[in-house]
Amino acid sequence: MSTAPAAPAASATSTAPAEPVAPAASAAAPAVRHRADLVVLGGTGDLSMRKLIPALYHSDREGRLAPETRVIAMSRGGLTDADFRGKVDAEVRGQVPVDDPAVWQRFLERLHHVSVDVGGENRSGWSALTRLLAGHEQRDRVFYLASPPRTFGPFCRELQDAGLVTPRSRVVLEKPLGHDLPSAQRINDEVGAIFDERQIFRIDHYLGKETVQNLLVLRFANAFLEPIWNSLWIDHVQITAAETVGTPGRRGYYDHAGALRDMVQNHLLQLLTLTAMEPPARNDREAIRDEKVKVLQALRPISGGEVGRFTVRGQYTAAGDMPGYLDEPASTAPTEASRRVETFTAIRAEVKNWRWAGVPFYLRTGKRMPYRRSEIVVQFKDVPHSIYPGGTPNRLVLRLQPEEGIELHIMAKEPGAGEVSLKPVPLSLSFGKTFTARVPEAYERLLTDVLAGNPTLFMRRDEVEAAWRWIDPILDAWSADPALPEPYPAGTTGPAGAHELLGRSGRAWHEEEL
Ligand code: BG6
């Protein structure tokens, strides 16, 4: 349990102690903008420079940051504030729209840098951070750990030793949260010894994607789907996250992660929970997460001999000008772990409850696939009795990327006299075409929620652990199996086994463009 006093409920609608609030800059900005110090461990790293800093700039530009809010990057880099601002100017300015140089300058002035060596002897970084934060105890204090998970516990302890954990503090944990259940529990215990669960925000950036939010609205703000959202009407569900990128420069991480830990344990299982969950009683942080946990707990375990039947793992090999996994540029030579790691996986999962018993949920993710596409495909059953030749069952496609949108494929009659000829036609909602507002990046949404103290879109401890509980037996069976992952040429849709996984029951992966 936390030794810190309980955090005030700090959601935008809370009755938390009066916090001076800056006036909103535009009609579009939310009414409440908390003054905050956002401290990012790993603040000069790849995630920070590609995602967090651009997201914060967008928030600033759109009036969602209070004027006093500061961003304090921590790294071992030995940079001054000026060095860090120069780095952001050089590396981030080109990634974002800078239409008003004064706004960009204002944003740069929010940025600070503190050098720190987590777990090291040198305490000077902590003194520097203490000086910077002194006198600002009434602000929301957000510690964002964009660093390897082994640093989470030590960093939190050092924060506490430095007296920097205030009642208004929160901590954000980036994935991966451990590499199996015991390591995840250890991290949760270590962080939980300093921060109360309500102060801990475990991020899964898929939950910040616009279509993911829309999935909940589609399901729970429309009446027509609920009666057919079950095993009576749905044949199966496919959840795909396909990427064209490989893993250049990431071997150190990826050899010990693999697709199952990197994508399935978090992103794909989160999509599965939102697809399968029961309607929550309220749109609130605990009600939604309670329902998601129940889905994870209802996942039928896959272990031992079943793993070979219900899971597939693959590794890409060189094709054309694309290197294979083992030939990707890396600072170290490939090892046995490199040869054994999966860059692709497909799994046939099942949710054992009244709504879903018997409906397969096929999960698939891979690097170096022919397209970049993340989607949830709900395949309905065929009509009970067809009076026309050539019909195909209805299908609902929720596309997360590259273009966010929703499509329902229905059968229509092709125009013309003579024989009735059927054609599947899409009823489609393209967010880009329907709404003129810019679709925010996932990290923007999530950082806004962290700053507002709203944890609904973050994973609770029991969720993360339930996900590992389901993943671990698959990992165990894979590591006991002497066979290597099935090879698939870079630029293809995965190994033959992935197609057999569905083909055995007469199904096939959805490969159509929207
Ligand atoms: C990250 C994984 O969590 O998600 C990466 O570590 C992956 O390996 C990335 O490339 C995919 O995110 P997105 O938003 O591009 O689908």
UniProtKB/TrEMBL annotation:
What are its E.C. numbers? 1.1.1.49
Q: Does the keyword Secreted apply?
A: no
Region feature Disordered, mapped onto this chain: 1-20
Which PROSITE patterns has this protein been placed in? G6P_DEHYDROGENASE
- Name-wise, this protein is Glucose-6-phosphate 1-dehydrogenase
- Specify the superkingdom: Bacteria
Q: Does the keyword Nucleus apply?
A: no
Q: Which residues bind substrate?
A: 205, 209, 243, 262, 367
Catalyses: D-glucose 6-phosphate + NADP(+) = 6-phospho-D-glucono-1,5-lactone + NADPH + H(+)
Q: Which family does it belong to?
A: Belongs to the glucose-6-phosphate dehydrogenase family.
Domain named Glucose-6-phosphate dehydrogenase C-terminal: residues = 216-510
UniProt xrefs under InterPro entries: G6P_DH, G6P_DH_AS, G6P_DH_C, G6P_DH_NAD-bd, NAD(P)-bd_dom_sf
Instruction: Give the metabolic or biological pathway.
Output: Carbohydrate degradation; pentose phosphate pathway; D-ribulose 5-phosphate from D-glucose 6-phosphate (oxidative stage): step 1/3
Gene expressing this chain:
zwf_3
Keywords of this protein's UniProt record, alphabetized?
Answer: Carbohydrate metabolism, Glucose metabolism, NADP, Oxidoreductase
Say which species the protein is native to: Nonomuraea antimicrobica
**What's its top-level EC category?**
oxidoreductase
Q: Which HAMAP family match?
A: G6PD (MF_00966)
Ranges annotated as spanning the membrane? none
Q: What does this protein do?
A: Catalyzes the oxidation of glucose 6-phosphate to 6-phosphogluconolactone.
Tell me which residues this entry annotates as catalytic.
267
Q: Show the SUPFAM superfamilies listed in the entry.
A: Glyceraldehyde-3-phosphate dehydrogenase-like, C-terminal domain (SSF55347), NAD(P)-binding Rossmann-fold domains (SSF51735)
Q: What is the lineage of its organism?
A: Bacteria, Bacillati, Actinomycetota, Actinomycetes, Streptosporangiales
Q: State the Pfam families in the record.
A: G6PD_C, G6PD_N
- Sequence ranges assigned to domain Glucose-6-phosphate dehydrogenase NAD-binding in this UniProt record: 39-214
| Binding annotation for NADP(+) | 76, 117-118, 175
